[in-house]
Every structure is written in structure tokens, then in C-alpha cells.
Amino acid sequence: MKLRLLLLLTILCQITVSAQILKYTNGNNSWNPDSLGNHRVVIQFNGNGGIVHTKIDWRRRDLHPETKGIIVLNSNGKIVKSSSENITRESGDVYFEANSAGKYYIYYLPYKNEGRSNYPKGSYLKPIQTLTNRPRQVAINASVLEIQSIDAFNSFYPMEVIATEKEMKAVKAAHQAESFIVFPEDRMFPIKMKNDLPYRWIRKTSLNSFTGTASKGENYAFQFGVYALKNLNDLVVNFSDLKTSSGKTISSKYINCLNTTGTTYDNKPLIQKVNVALGSVQPMWITVDIPKTTSAGIYNGKFIIKANGKSKIVNVKITVKNEVLANHGVNSPVNQTRLTWLNSTLAQQNTVVSPYTPLVIEGNVISLLGRKFEINADGFPKQIQTFFNSEMTGYSEKPNNILYEPIHFHFFNTPKTQEKFTPSNFQFTNKEAGTVKWTATNTSTNIKMDVEGSLEFDGYVHYIVKVTALQDVDFSNVNFHIPFDKGSTKYLMGLGEKGGIRPDTVKWKWDVANKNQDAAWVGNVNAGLYYNLRDENYVRPLNTNFYLQKPLLLPKSWRNENKGGIQINVKGSSMLADSYTGARSMKKGDVLYYNFNLLITPFHLLNTDFQWDNRFYHKYGSLDSIKATGASVVNIHHATPINPWINYPFIEWKKMKNYIDEAHSKDLKVKIYNTVRELSNHAYELPALRSLGTEIYSPGKGGGFSWLQEHLDSNYIAAWFVPEIKDAAIINSGMNRWHNYYVEGMNWLTSNVGIDGVYLDDVAFDRITMKRIKRVLTQNNHPGIIDLHSANQFNKNDGFNNSAILYMEHFPYLNRLWFGEYFDYQKNNPDFFLTEVSGIPFGLMGEMLQDDGNPWRGMIYGMTSRLGWSDKSDPKPLWKAWDNFGIKGSEMIGYWSENCPVKTDNAKVLATVYKQKGKIMIALASWAEDDVKVNLIIDWNKLGLDSTKVKITAPAIDKFQTTGVFQEGKPIMIDKGKGLILIVE
């Protein structure tokens, strides 16, 4: 061992003497990277003129540098003729013309941006030899002063400066009998290269020890860089307690290797197997969560890195200072103190969230907010009822039945014969305020069907249906029937159908390669049911325009080799949703899972006063100016001074806190843009997250903006890019431990920065994470306002899904919808507006975005456009009209309700009433093809007004309508695509 160490030291000393490591500096944005690239070499030429030859030992991490061009500029910024040869990753010879002595600049990764501005493709320039008449031999006559990057963030130093081939050979020679080498590394130097050793490691003289310094209470982290000299299987890091010489300990229970063990986003143990290919570098991140009660001192321990039956011991010494670090050090994420968040279990307990109420069980009936769920002896729903009135503003004593008969399965042996089940063992297995669970067994001659069901406080129902063959058996069809009460099925969306009036027949087949479709919603405004079909292998696909890169997994039970599908038909007083599989066989012992989920809608009443009280301003700016508009909530998007980096609002948090503190002093709320789908390349944890393979980041073909190509190489999907600040994001993989970090981040932002909520721009997490963030956002009486924005998903790239279907599992925790981009408010009918955009059938209200919305149509749903988003988007005149009328406290009675006291004699001109004591506001909106005259049909008794004593006026509303006076019984002119607001008092 001593001989090997001596040999290594001798080789490294020889390399260090001969190697050249250039000085790396910050260019302080002194050139235009979009034309010259992010990196340059500064050359000093002391001659009088002529041809300059310099040799650059640049140690580049990019592959095939000989295929990329160079640009040489003189000190005046003028391009000079140049040529190059012997270009390798290690070095290159560059020649250029010089008229005089001085500094010259060689830009060696010049690129141009192609494609869309927010989804650019950095295309590197090809080599062009413009210096064609140079002498054959020119001696090196200029020196390299330094390598500059456009800024510190783009720098390759030190962890992306590669070791040379000679240095690599020396390292391998010193370890030729071994399977791997371990390079202990400090947290401040995250390992970034997978296929190269950094030159920094070549100079390391000790590979069997690590020394670090931490504070009491700190989430401390460090790395082991494992370089594979052979293919490695099942790489692990083992450790025991850290101890001082006096016997003080840091228990091993506070130590973890992120790459191999953890906790999933849904609170399950996670064990990851790490294999490393020959010649690859695998960072193994170690977290040590030092308790606050730890005594100061020097703590020692042995960490054993194992693979292929071989092991290496690294002696770890951590000095714990007397200082107690506040908040575990997470206020400084640059120190990697938040990596522990990846395994957080914060807010996992399924406690009831306002406005929901605890579940109550009476017999087989479970009551929840505004709804009842009755279970049959077989474990499936017998009846589902809602008690919301048709206006969605109160409750009704008379139930709205959703089912015509119980939900059930048919296992047909032939078209006329089927398995006859005997139900048994129905029992409740869990009775909590937030969740009730039950099981049942159904047995026939040939199969056993084990049923596990659960209902949560918000109306989410989850079924695991395990079917086991007791004998070899053939089926002509397997049918899952949801027999709806026809009276509760006015509308439908999903299964390729846009939201609107339910067709009498819907026929649908699985096509996951092209369509993100596995669910439908059927219902009325005040009673509905969403259902989806899944199996035990379900994985949430990527959403929005990345669906095709990670589509749905086919549920083998339901799809059955493309024989399965869904057909919806009216049958007398019922409407049957028949999910069928076609013919199939099962061998004895075979198991299939026919899992499904339900959502009982609406989730809660409309909170109309919240809609009138909370008026949003969608732009960062002067708080005094925002206050003057009448807005009460500021939505801070990304790419703003206090929230610059997409979905990583932790770098400028002090600026954000100052802004929010000032806003609160002016009675304004502040919400921020922060979601999960893509993550900024400015995230401090990016290298550590990349070390987890494709757990956090989705695999892909790479490309995109130059920074991504230069620092990540490949195996990622380039996402949203902001040209002004060069924020380049990459796509998250879906359901993973980043969601644990996200919940912790929301908790930290609420507690330490004071955010009043979050603006979600599409979401890539499921309802588990949504419940968790709602809990942390509303802790300690914080308002916790959550808005969801979605572009219309009904297109090829998004998999032809309905946004409301895609996100309905999140609706119970939202305060407002912004279903805006690519939603056509002009051409779509009111049934589409109601079901896909407004949120009203689910207990929500919304706002408009695309082309600033249609204010007249929006008003019959209580919607306006975004203030601050564009010059034309200005709801202030409508807000003023609301205040003049006194809309707060009014009863909203929509056109969809049979109780609406105002209608028109034209079916394409709709009316919604806002009723106050002694007066009403009527919102009229037209979908007629032309300007039309309509007569109002008013039920004065319902309004409690005397028709002989009222006056009907149209108040002047800027950019909306001029003032007018109307007589009861006289026709009213409504312009095409517009409407009116009338005051009756």
C-alpha cells in the first residue's frame, strides 16, 4: 500500500511539473455571447506585426472541438484572419494576423441561436480557415494570459477543466489492479463531468481521507467521486456513527447517501441501485444532518465504498464548530444544505384542509363536504350523491343522485354467460378524518376479485381491483360499468371530446402513443363524476408540449392488446359508461389489476366573495402604482428582479422578502410563480440532482441553449428559456423526490419570505404533492392562495387532453383557474366555456388570458382578464362597476341554474344575475351570429322586486358599454360577440 501511494505521488509530481493549467477569469459580460460564444482565450502578442502563433492548453470538456469554429478579435473588437490546426480537447494551435503588439481574443465556442426565442437551439459555428496565406512554419510567438468566460456562471473552472490523456494514464497505472478509484470532494466543488476527471483531482495527494467543517444543526453534505476502472455493479456507501476521541457521537441515522437510499414523494422507502460503466465518474452525495445538540469537536468515521465485491475505506473527519446554524443552514442553499429536503416527509399526514370537513361513517355511507358515498357489499360504489344547489352557492336538502345503479364489473365467459360472484369480507380497515379505507373479496368459480377502496375528504376515490385466476379461464369480454343517472349527465369532457353537452354516444379506443387520454368527466354543474382507468404500473406522463417524449404507459388489463376501449350510450333513464376489454384468457394464478379512480364533483361551493375581493395584478412593479389600480394581489412571474430563475425562487429571496414586506404594509398580497415541470439551470443543486441519473431530470436528446450543451453534454430535455437573462431550464422527469424538495421550499418561502400563495403554470405533480403544498402554504393562518394556469392541452404535442381533465385532481386545492393560452373565447360555445374554462362545475371560478379574453362573456361566469399582462388587458372598469353596484355579498345566479330569474327570448343570448337586496345586476352575453334584439324574461317574484317601480339602466363602463336606460318589456340590442351589464333597482 505504501509503495503504491509513493508511486502515485511520484507520478503526480512529474505531471504537475510538466502540466500547464491556465488562469480562468470572469469576463464580466464584456462581449456579446450570442455572436461570439461564452468563452475566450486572452492572448498577449509582443511583436510588431505579422502572423501570430499561439498554443492553447485549454483542457476542454466538449467532444470533437475540431468541428467547432473559432473567431479572433483584436483589442478594437475587429475580426482578424485566422486559422487553426491540431485542435483537440487538450490543446490547439491558432494562427492569426496581427498589425501590432497587444491583446487578442480567441473565441472558441461561438454559436448562433436558432429556433424559437424561448426554445432556442444553440448551433455552433463550423471551422473556417480565413488565414490562407500564412507561412508553413511559424514558431509560437504569443503567450496565453488567461481563459475567460462571459461570466462566473459560465466558467468551466475548476470542476470542468479536464485531465489530459497522459494524466489519466498515470492515474490508471497507479491503480491498475483496482476496480475503481474514489475521489473525496468538498460540497463547494460539485462533480459535473461524467466521462472525464477534472484536473483538480490530478493534484490530489490523498484519496483515502476527507476533511470538512460544519456547524451545529447544519445539513452538511460532501461527495465521493467514484471513477470506474471496470464496469461496476451495485455501488454503495456504508458508514457507521461519527465519533470524537472523547466518545461523543453523531449517529449514523443522521447520515444518508442520496444516490442509494431515501424517501419517495409519496412517503415510501426508496432503494436505488447504482451501476457505473467503465470509464465513467459517479458522484455519491452524502448528507450529514448534524443535530443542534451536537457537542463541538472533531468527529471521525470510516466510510466504506463498495462495488463488485471490492471496497475502499475513506477516513472522514468533520470538525463541528461551536456555532449553532439557524434553520439548518438552508438559508444558504449554495452550501448544498437543502439536499436533505429530497427525502422530506413534511405535510404527508392526510389532515383535513379547509374548507373540507372530516369524513363521517354511518353504516356503509360516508359523508363528506356536500356529498355522500354509499358502498355495496362487494366494495364498489352503490350510490353517490351531491347536495349542492344548481347555483353552486348553497346546499340543497334533496340529493342529486349520480348513479342509476351500483358500479360493477361483468366477466363474460360467453356473450350470454358470466362469472357469478359471491361478495364477502367487506370491512373498513381505516377510519380517519381525512381518509376511510375498506376491503372486500368477490369470488366466483374461476376468479377471485380482491377490492381495496379508499375515499378522501375532498372526494377522491381510489380503487385497487386485483383479479386472480383460480382456474384456466376464457372471457369473451370484461366490462366495467358506471351506470349514471341520466339526469346528472348533461355535460361531458374527455376521451377525445371537448367539454360541452354530452353526446348520446361516445366511442373511444386507447392510443397512448399519441393521446394523453385515460379519463372522462360526466355530470351537471352541481353533480358529476370523473373517472380514470389504470393498472399497477401507472406512471404519470410528462405534460404540456412534452407529452410525446414520455407518454402514458398502456394499462395491460384495460387495453388488452388494443381490444379494449370505452363506449358511452344513453339507455332509458340511465347513461352507461362501459369500459370494455374484449376477449382474453387467464391461466391459473395469473393476476390482472383493473384499477380506477373517481372524483366526486363539485368539490365545494363557489366562493364568490373571494373572487370579488382578490383582484390580481400580473406584473412586477411599483407597489404604490399597483395599489392605485384597485388590485389586491400581485402575481410575481419568473424572469423578474425578485424571482428571476424559473421554479427556483431561492437566489434573490432577500429582495423578494423586502418587496413582500412592503406589499403587506400596503395591504397587498404577493404570490409567486413556482411550479414543477422544468427547473432553472441556476439551481445550486443541479449537479447533485444530475448525479441521480434520470430520477429528477427526464432523459432526452439534449441540445437547446448553449449553456446546457456546454455543461450538461446530453441526456436531458431543454425547456423554457428567457433570452433577456439567459435562464435555461430542463424538464423534470415526473414523479420523484424533487417534489419533497418542492414542498420544503414552499414551506420555507411561506415561513421566511412571507409569500401569500403560488401561481402554478401547469403542474407535473399529482394530488399528493398538491395537498402537501396546500398544507404548508396555509400554515399559521397564511392565505395560501393557489392559482393554476394552463394552456389548452387539446393539440398534438400535448396529447389531445382537456386541461380540466388533466388537472382535475388538483382542483380541490385551487382558489382560481387561469385556463388561458390557446383557449378561444370567441368561437367556442357557452357549454365549453362553462365546463373547460370557468371552473364553476367544480366549485371554482376563473379568469381569462388569450387575446385578453371576452369581457362580456366572461362576466356571466364572473371572470375578467389579467391586469398588467398586456396594454389591452384592463379589468379596472369592470372592477369599478362591481364596486358601484356592491357586488360583494351578492348572490350569483348563473344562466345554467333553473332558478335564474332572468332569461332572454334568444337561446344564444344568456343572462347571469347578481342579486343584492333591493337591486340586481344582470350580465348579458351573446353567442349569436349577428347583432340581435332580445327581450328579457324576468321572474319578478324570484327577485323580490316590483316591476312597476324599478328602473333598468346600463351604467357607463369604459371599453365595455355606454350608458343607457331601458324599459321593461322593450327589446334590447346586443352586439355580436358582446353583451351588456344592466342594473335593475
Supply database-style keywords.
985 residues; mainly beta; 10-stranded antiparallel β-sheet; 6-stranded mixed β-sheet; 17 helices; globular; disordered N terminus
Explain how this protein is built.
The radius of gyration is 33 Å and the shape is globular. Mean pLDDT is 95; it is low at 1-18. It has 985 residues and is mainly beta. Helix 12 (767-777) links the parallel strand 53 (757-761) and strand 54. The longest helix has 17 residues, at 2-18. The chain is built from 17 helices and 65 strands. Strands 31, 32, 33, 34, 37, 38, 40, 41, 45 and 46 form a 10-stranded antiparallel sheet that branches.
Secondary structure elements and pairings:
Layout: H1 2-18, E1 24-26, H2 33-36, E2 39-45, E3 50-56, E4 71-74, E5 79-80, E6 82-85, E7 92-98, E8 102-107, E9 111-116, E10 119-124, E11 142-149, H3 165-174, E12 180-186, H4 199-202, E13 209-216, E14 219-228, E15 236-238, E16 242-243, E17 249-250, E18 255-257, E19 261-263, E20 269-271, E21 281-289, E22 297-307, E23 310-324, E24 360-362, E25 365-368, E26 371-375, E27 381-388, E28 395-401, E29 408-414, E30 417-418, E31 422-431, E32 435-443, E33 447-456, E34 460-469, E35 473-475, E36 477-485, E37 491-494, E38 497-501, E39 505-509, E40 519-524, E41 527-534, H5 556-559, E42 565-571, E43 574-580, E44 584-586, E45 591-593, E46 595-601, H6 608-613, E47 616-617, H7 623-628, E48 633-636, H8 653-665, E49 669-673, E50 678-680, H9 686-690, H10 706-712, E51 718-722, E52 727-731, H11 738-753, E53 757-761, H12 767-777, E54 785-790, H13 803-807, E55 816-819, H14 830-838, H15 855-859, H16 876-885, E56 891-893, E57 902-904, E58 909-916, E59 919-926, E60 932-934, E61 936-938, H17 940-943, E62 952-954, E63 964-966, ...
Parallel strand pairs: 1-11, 13-23, 47-48, 48-49, 49-53, 53-54, 54-55
Antiparallel strand pairs: 2-8, 2-11, 3-7, 4-5, 4-8, 6-7, 9-10, 12-14, 14-21, 15-22, 16-17, 18-21, 19-20, 22-23, 24-25, 25-26, 26-27, 27-28, 29-30, 29-36, 31-32, 32-33, 33-34, 34-45, 34-46, 35-44, 36-43, 37-38, 37-40, 39-42, 40-41, 41-46, 42-43, 50-52, 51-52, 56-58, 57-61, 58-59, 59-65, 60-64, ...
Helix pairs in contact: 1-3, 11-12
